[in-house]
């Protein structure tokens, strides 16, 4: 440790810390603009000057490292004069339009002007005017207000990785600018207004809508992806105005999906009151009518239950309790992207924290568009890439990543066994093996060179595998995951403290899901098949939209055409047209609830915003359902519900004890003894179908948000894509073609892209691809027109 | 780095240039270092560095367009706009100012009928003031298309204008 | 070195061969001693010995800051696993300075030889000369000389069979004074806008592409061959202690024979102007002398006798800087001069630091008004405040340079400034 004196007070900090950080750590206030704890140091604003004994000139504290015995003064008369002058320099060209600026009340420039500025400006010359530029649908620019701190430039470069923001010109003509014709393409763009210390970059959707002081704040957890970021919801009355990251949380940023999804909270797609279908139309009803209709449809019937993982842990438990009380034989599905429901060798969820992944020697991403799927983890990988640490990738497409991937292989999903077998052979040659290797390798015919990339990475001291949905959604997923598990064990990564087995889940709370539903779960496809086959009388859908999302839209439509649907949830989505009854359940921001993210980190939300309509917490809806249908109500309050949750999931025992929460990490489960060998499939269709997850349009919340939909259009690709060679081989080029699958034939516009693996039919827009989302193989039969 | 893949416009480096760029890049630890020399090549070949040229250069060197834009706009010797056939750059900094540079500029502008920063209607001459040319011992200094002329007199300027105009008229 | 094998007869170091016709060609340069001692250095010297000689010589950087060259070289960490780079600073942008230009266009092989020796001492494989963009001709002369040197195996692989290899590349700037600042130069050489980096880390440890890097001025490097040939002690015997050797002074402004003069350090300002430069154009004592380039504080007649050394200039309240002496006689308009320099710094600020970006523009606009007779008494106060709080509060020293002419004008000629304000009333 280095000890130094700040204003005569002796403090100790880590060697190499900057003076500014030493001050911050010790509660000493030093004003600054350009410094940001998450960005590289620029030291250009010169507001953070301090005096150091023995130095002739004041020093910028943000870029001056501490040294032993250093004596620092942060508040002297001469520093006050310096700060006053920095403020004056900054303000001479500033428009001083605080009354019309959204940043007012939350502006560093305004605050410091009051604290450090002179009472009167002395600038008598004309002021500078600066042109604005386009930063996409979420960021408004007013560059005349810019103070050139370059935080946004560093953010774009270091965090977002888009780098479209730069510094043009020099001297006082210097401007921060984007490329005029190209809007900013970043899934993290909403952070820009947050990091801009003044009103140059403002949140476009909330522009001129409200001022900071009108807001009430609610801490919550974002459930838009399994990362489960801490969020702060700002509301005015019962209306959500903004979602922002929480200072001091593990992730300093939030993605655009988590931020702008707020727009769907007040959209027409919300279910705000009970509804029943009368004469083919969904109409308002009171709770009584809705429940009696529900009872008619479900009581004593054979039902299937499908729900979405975005509900809180308590909500999920209540679904299980409802099932056990009313439909003890009911099968339950919660995953729209998993075809193979056999237990995986390692369960879903990350066995490493994202910080550990960022530190690992090697990271391999297997079959995942990580930038769309987990933008914040991607951001960490990008940072690690900038630091020269490798990130490799195997998958069906060279997904755009904004970073240099050190090793890249594109493969067809059917190649996975050959990739893994190839890797097994290579590590075996290096003397690393595990029981079961031979049998696994022996079950696979071919070998795929991409396996070398995997094996090379596995040979390092620590290796994180990020297993994505191309593997998880594979028809033979359990066997593949067993193969990966063998590899990790062979190479010594499976020991407790070095476990790199990370299976990216579909949503939040997955660790809890397998504990709560492991014994009764089926795939959504099976559930729909059962309904279509007449084995079920009705379906209960709790906040899930299998028509708009996932791998089973056709199956879902077929099933819903046959059996009635009771829909419980917060957003109506595309399935609402099938609903016989709609029961409103409160959204994640509107409840007290517990969430477990993919790393197993626990968050308990205790300060919900008010509901907009008649919606109730899900558990209350579930219990009421039990009650109206004459079941025995298992829990009557939140404490009892949590107790029931604890019983099923002992890892959560301390979850509601504030002192223990932070130390709990719920690890994903391990399943020994499912030694599954890959089965070879017949090649009746020559193309493997892979569909893309888009953060702007996946999930009913995102689709209910106009803001995200608008951004999704900017980022859109052709709906269906193949590698140019795939078409060329058949003598075709981009255009309308007939696609043949086991569901039949249909015509699609097929575009081409070099970064799709040959032999893959890539569905870039799920849902639009229609039936294509349901299948895993297809062939193109030539132009239909 | 084949010529076809780069740009279908007129703004495209010749194959010789591309070969030259390849050797140039090899002299530096990273291709980005070759940006300034490549910008000079573009300016030489195309007269100025248009947005299309900047895009093409970004592609040739594997840079983002913004990286090119930042450099083009930072350095005063890179021009994004065309200028006259003869660019007359007069140093008016201290050494030259003390030896009559301002009077020289006034004389030039008078003779050519333009203001500083403008180009004559026939497209022959552009006059600009520049910062210290690093030849103060020969003040006042005028660069004509980057060739230094020292101890420049109004007579020299007049002769130059007459000569170039005559050439231009041919 | 060339003309005389007796070091006592060497009067000039960098300009020793300057008047020899065609000495820019390898043949003529070799006839006059170029590369004569290089084989001995490559064979018999090692890093420690070279650095020792340079330390003993007392050579201080000629680029402006006067930092001891041997000491700078000794900061370069060895065996980092990264390459070490040598960058020659030939950006020569400081108003008033034009000495490096003459070395490059007349005796390029002297610089090349100095760079090979410095490169050898530092284990450099790739060296670059960063020449200001306007010096197209000089860059061409350098390139021609480098080509000849490659052909003669003085550069490239296994130089003269010594086992040491070094590449040398000329890189042109493009009109940005700030690129003379060493970290801005590095940024520029990396293909970026030339915006200075804060220190630490120092370039010696983390410079060009994050690798150990030495940046030296042309004149500094051109002095190295003589030091190694005749010994550090010899160099230290010229001039006065702590200010050893010769220095090229670029004299411009109101003198009868402006130009470059290489004289032993310690020669007085007055001697230089009167004996070498043919005296002033008008009058007998200068009104203002800027002794080290436009960024250094002004001296007046009172300091006409000051010896040309780093220490004496500091004592007189200014700096030796790059040795660019701008002289103004009694006819000078100090307000116009100050206005012109304010314009220069406002144009050249890289724009990153608040005080410099906004301050230089502000000073320029106020000076425009003051010069045209529209200044007010308050402007004087503002000029002083704005200049004072720029200096020493920014990443690089450009802001100090921008403040100097304003503060000097206010200090030495307040009445002249006030007289301009009066014009307004009239
Ligand atoms: C604004 C500014 C401009 C500079 N311009 C030059 C220059 O044109 N040439 C130069 O050699 N040094 C220049 N310097 C000094 C360099 O930063 C650096 O100190 C020098 O190149 C080191 O070489 P030396 O040790 O051989 O003097 C400048 C410094 C500043 C702050
Ligand atoms: S002082 Fe001026 S020139 Fe130097 S780094 Fe700061 S802004 Fe740039
Ligand atoms: S915070 Fe240190 S200079 Fe801006």
A few lines on this structure:
The complex is a heterotrimer of chains A (785), B (170) and C (426). Helices cover 48% and strands 11% of the residues of chain B. Chain B has 170 residues and is an alpha+beta fold.
Write the layout of secondary structure elements.
The complex is a heterotrimer of chains A (785), B (170) and C (426).
Chain A: E1 2-6, E2 9-13, H1 19-25, E3 49-52, E4 59-60, E5 71-73, H2 77-92, H3 108-116, E6 139-141, H4 151-160, E7 165-168, E8 175-178, H5 191-195, E9 201-203, E10 216-221, E11 230-236, E12 239-245, H6 256-260, H7 262-265, E13 275-278, E14 281-284, H8 287-298, E15 303-307, H9 313-326, E16 331-333, H10 354-359, E17 362-366, H11 370-373, H12 375-386, E18 391-395, E19 407-410, H13 416-429, H14 437-442, H15 450-458, E20 463-467, H16 469-472, H17 477-490, E21 501-503, H18 510-517, H19 524-532, E22 538-542, H20 553-560, E23 565-569, E24 579-584, E25 593-596, E26 602-605, H21 618-628, H22 638-648, H23 658-661, E27 687-691, H24 700-704, H25 706-714, E28 720-722, H26 724-729, E29 735-741, E30 744-752, E31 760-763, E32 777-783
Parallel strand pairs in A: 1-5, 15-16, 15-22, 17-18, 17-20, 18-19, 20-21, 22-23, 23-24, 27-31, 28-30
Antiparallel strand pairs in A: 1-2, 3-4, 3-5, 6-9, 7-8, 10-11, 11-12, 13-14, 13-24, 25-26, 27-32, 28-31, 29-30, 29-32
Helix pairs in contact in A: 2-3, 9-18, 9-21, 9-22, 13-15, 13-17, 19-20
Chain B: H1 3-6, H2 15-26, H3 35-46, H4 51-61, H5 65-74, E1 86-91, H6 94-97, H7 101-112, E2 125-130, E3 142-144, E4 147-149, H8 154-169
Helix pairs in contact in B: 3-4, 4-5, 7-8
Chain C: H1 26-31, H2 38-44, H3 47-57, H4 69-74, E1 84-90, H5 99-106, H6 108-122, E2 124-131, H7 136-151, E3 167-172, H8 182-189, E4 213-217, H9 218-230, H10 232-237, E5 239-240, E6 243-244, E7 246-253, E8 259-264, H11 269-276, E9 288-290, H12 310-315, E10 324-328, H13 334-348, H14 354-371, H15 377-388, H16 398-412, H17 414-425
Parallel strand pairs in C: 1-2, 1-4, 2-3, 7-10
Antiparallel strand pairs in C: 5-6, 7-8, 9-10
Helix pairs in contact in C: 3-6, 5-6, 5-7, 6-9, 13-14, 13-16, 14-15, 14-16, 15-16
The complex binds flavin mononucleotide, iron/sulfur cluster and FE2/S2 (inorganic) cluster (FES).
